[in-house]
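Methods — Computational structure assignment.
A single polypeptide chain was analysed. Its primary sequence is given first, followed by the predicted tertiary structure written as structure tokens.
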Amino acid sequence: MGFIDINPPVPEAPVGDGALLDAYSETVSGAVDRVGPAVSRIERLGDQGHGSGFAISPDGLIITNHHVVADAKSVRIRTANGAVGQGTVLGRDPDTDIALVRADMDVQAWARLGDSKKLRRGHIAIAIGNPLGFDWSVTAGVVSALGRSMRASTGRLIDDVVQTDAALNPGNSGGPLVSASGEVVGVNTAVIRGAQGIAFAVASNTANFVVSEILRFGHVRRAFIGIVVDTTSLPRRVALKAGMVQETTVRIRRIDPGSPADKAGLREGDFILAIDGHPVAGADDLIRLLDGTRIDTRTPISVYDLDQQIAERVLVPAARPQS
């Protein structure tokens, strides 16, 4: 008579799968442990508006979204350890949806702004925030795309936006997008309603530039040349021909008619290699190099044009009106 085993052995998972999952879990939880205590809930006084923010310094500087604070001069802050206090809005930049708040309380912990230029598609992206009243929630996904543009509340386009599939909901706005190493690489800002797995964060390099401008001048000085760009790979042969070392650059996707870029002869599809001799490796470089000092100043720009030639142009940036 044959023997039938009524409790057959369960097939073992392939060797290494469990270790990989454990490593992923440890990476995410480690990043959350480093950044999570710096995350706060930001509430507008007098209405139900709220969002997220995160401290970036021991003296209580907190980054959030412009649309979270709106026109408020002060906000209520609730930290991860339960402390509640108020904060003063030091400045805001609607064009990048970034605002800076100084807390009047001990924030206990702060996070480090990382270099968003080091991001690559497929990198782990961890979002921490206060979505739909579920405070200090954590979601994780991957970086889906880099150098996107999206429209701000002012109607202007925000350049250097990180696209991620980490789940975001109302209330996540202003919270940090965190890398596997526990550095903030973006400020969560928007989701596309009706879409799944498509969310956006303002890159940390852009946020760092905005914070520096607000601390120095109270607002962001910005030159305007009238283009929309995407960050893209720089062909190796072009880099060698131009004597450049960067692996990425920006390509013009749209030019406003009559703008300084249009008057200088730039065309859609041109690669911008450098501004006044400074390499342009991404949209954040373009934003940083076109600061207030360039307004009404003849500015040389190096491009790789549609004729497959490296050309020099000169444009005169205009002042972008304050929103």
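Note: The first strand starts at residue 39 and ends at 44.
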